[in-house]
Amino acid sequence: MVLATPVQQLPAADTVVPSSVGPLRMLHFPALGTLCEVQYISPRGDAQAATFDRAVIAWVENFEAKYSRFRPTSLVSQINAAAGRHWVVIDEDMSRLMALCDILYSMTNGVLDPTALPLIQLWNWKNERPAIPSDEKIAAARRLVGWSKVQRASGRVFLPEPGMALDFGGFGKEYAVDLVAQIALDHGITNVLVDFGHDLRALGAPVGKPLWHVGLEDPKNAGQSNGSIGISGRGVASSGDYLRHFKINGRRYGHIIDPRTGWPVSNGCTQATVIADTCLHAGVLSTTAFVLGLTEGAKFIQGFPRCEGLLVSDSSRAQTPGFFHYVVTA
User: What residues have CB less than 8 Å from 116, skipping those under 6 apart?
Assistant: First the structure.
């Protein structure tokens, strides 16, 4: 996980808390199942900041209302409810998101599969008494998974088997981060750090500094940083299972499921961090690299231009050659 250095200590709240410290402002609100923060400089003052804040909050709310599987009235929930029954009419925005899924599924060789929800629910780490599913249940869930099974026509989509379901959680938050960064630019704000649950996009820099400094969370001490990087014009995301998991007989079963096997990732990797041009790219690569493991994950990241990554386990680490250029040493 990446930890953006806070500007000030903000109170825990379930409402929007806009504030400023000198020339640097912070917008702070809960959404997308996490804490969303936007640090930025408003060159035209309070009126510009207020307009930007409203635009961000409205966009995120509309995005979540439409694409969250946790909202029963969302378009995603409507598609899932209609699985095996009928086609669902979709708009151009959903069609574009479906096209993006094509790209992400292909570039990750099936590691990122938006139809993996049956497996995610089967291995739900939040259950009061989590258990290891039987081979039969895993096989049954796997039969419902496969992006290529999704049927699409102009303005319509159909999940052909009852129980199939879409979930954009594997990239939706990162996608939102990039869109909010674009909203900042559209409002004339060029120095901004968008941080949604520690998935980040940085533009420009804070006052008096050349870069935004971002902490790298220590998997052995959650919430604590064991280093930091300096970024501008980049996205950063981390994937790991050291926070969200359950244990049975001393073995950890994490929340990241490999849809190709139907099992939680268990390759010794505890965290994968990627720096890329966008948060979406960083998030997709970090998750895929985590699934592939230290050696293959680092090779995978290195195959993409302008992308750098660091993968760690309890006893070792692997990184791409250029990652050290971003490490802050003082």
Answer: 145, 167, 170, 257, 259
Q: Cα–chain-centroid distance for residue 318? A: 22
Beta strands in the chain (DSSP E): 2-4, 19-21, 24-31, 34-41, 88-89, 151-153, 156-158, 192-196, 199-203, 212-218, 221-231, 234-240, 245-248, 251-254, 257-258, 263-264, 269-276, 308-313, 317-319
Q: What is the pTM of this model?
A: 0.91
Residue 23, domain extent:
2-62+171-326
DSSP 83: T
Contact 311, 272 (CB under 8 A): yes
CATH for 267: 3.10.520.10
- Same domain for 92 and 21: no
Alpha-carbon distance of 226 to 282, in angstroms, equals: 20
Report yes or no on 165 lying in a domain: no
* Tens-digit pLDDT profile for residues 77-121: 999 999 999 999 999 999 999 999 999 999 999 999 999 999 999
Give me 176's structure tokens: 């939102």
Is 14 part of a structural domain of the chain? yes
Average pLDDT over the chain, rounded to whole?
90
Give the CA radius of gyration of the chain: 20
Burial of residue 314 (number of CB atoms within 10 Å: 0-12, 13-18, 19+): exposed
Domain count across the chain: 2
* Residue 302: count of CB within 10 angstroms of its CB: 17
How far apart are the C-alpha atoms of 43 and 50, rounded to whole Å?
12
